[in-house]
Amino acid sequence: MSENPSPGAERHEAERPEAERPEAERHGAEQPGAEQPGAERHGDHERGREEYGDARAESAVGCLLAVAGVAVVGAFALTRAAYTIDGGFEAHARDWGVILVELPLILCAGLVVPPLTYAAATRWLRPWQAALVCVAVVALGLWGLAAGWNPPQAPDPGDGPGI
Predict the structure, then answer these.
(1) Can you give the pLDDT at residue 97?
(2) E strand or H helix at 98
(3) 3-state class of 31 per DSSP?
(4) How far is it, in rounded angstroms, from Cα 148 to Cα 136?
(5) Helix, strand, coil % (nearest 5) of the chain?
(6) CA-CA distance, 74 to 124, in Å (whole number)?
């Protein structure tokens, strides 16, 4: 018997009835070696993973800078505003404007400025240089805050009307 099928038995793959197709082909699984249109090749897929990993690393650095910025600015601002928050003797010096407006704005700046500075600097500089720019901007911001923001402080015991 010959291994060649009868003359009318050759059909195009798409014309074969469902029952004659292999199991993997019926359920939509890829055949080995068959390349789908629009499918990525192995090198393209790996390059995409590298770019995705770089983006994840930059996002992680941005989140770490945001947390560090809030911690540094919070430690600086809360120590300066401690008397305003406590209010001193019988809370007579409590300043709600500092508590409800100024401190939240300062903390928000500490949350937003470092990652935005880093993101803007990484467009033109290397990541370590961008981190240095970020540290410099935070230091300048703290210096400006110390120079311009003076919440009420505890009065000197020597000041006042006395007995």
Answers:
(1) 85
(2) none
(3) coil
(4) 18
(5) 65, 0, 35
(6) 30
